[in-house]
Amino acid sequence: MNCPREYTGDEVASLVQQWLDVFAPERQGINTKAYMWHVFSGSRYPALEGELARVEYLKQICGEFVILSNDREVAFLTDTRPEDRPFSDFYVFPPNLAWTMAFTHEEGSLGPYFAQHPRYAELNPANIARVKKQEEMAHARSQGWIKTP
């Protein structure tokens, strides 16, 4: 994938709901309408913070990344881990939500946050397998075993 795929408005709404269902099941009394990452800063969901979060995020093996703006207006899928800040507050996660990284405008005092899905151990091997398959396909193409579409 050379260029990100932008999600439609309905798809963005679905991603937001899925994210909240996984990472914010205990959000009563937390203002997730303003910032979904308040579930982490408000200690409603376990997460690593700051440099520990960043280190864990960079360890994740993932072939595709969903990038979701906190304003819930924009989301796209890319094969490149974001290095720049496309939004002031945003979330990065694989399509299966095995983990999430929440980048905040309060970075330095609050965030960033890294959290794992409750079923991370079950979900993350699929992300690793996807990357391995992509690497195998790239090798096969480089050897001429598979023609590039």
Explain what this protein looks like in three dimensions.
The chain has 149 residues and is an alpha+beta fold. It has one domain (5-142). Helices cover 34% and strands 17% of the residues. It has 4 helices and 7 strands, in the order βααβαβββββα. It has helices at 9-23, 38-41, 51-59, 120-142, and strands at residues 5-6, 48-49, 65-69, 75-78, 90-93, 99-103, 113-116. The chain has a 7-stranded antiparallel β-sheet, sandwiched between helices. Strand 3 (65-69) and strand 4 form a beta hairpin. The protein is globular, with a radius of gyration of 16 Å. The model has no long low-confidence stretch (mean pLDDT 88).
Strand content: 15-25%
Spatial strand order of the main sheet: 1-4-3-5-6-7-2
Overall morphology: globular
H/E topology pattern: EHHEHEEEEEH
Compute the separation of the termini in Å.
12 Å
Features:
about 150 residues; alpha+beta; seven-stranded antiparallel beta sheet; 7 strands; about 35% helix; about 15% strand; DUF4275 domain-containing protein; DUF4275
Which SSEs are present, and which pair or pack?
Elements: E1 5-6, H1 9-23, H2 38-41, E2 48-49, H3 51-59, E3 65-69, E4 75-78, E5 90-93, E6 99-103, E7 113-116, H4 120-142
Q: Short summary of the structure?
A:
With 149 residues, this protein is α+β, with helices and mostly antiparallel strands. The protein has four helices and seven strands. The protein has helices at 9-23, 38-41, 51-59, 120-142; strands spanning 5-6, 48-49, 65-69, 75-78, 90-93, 99-103, 113-116.
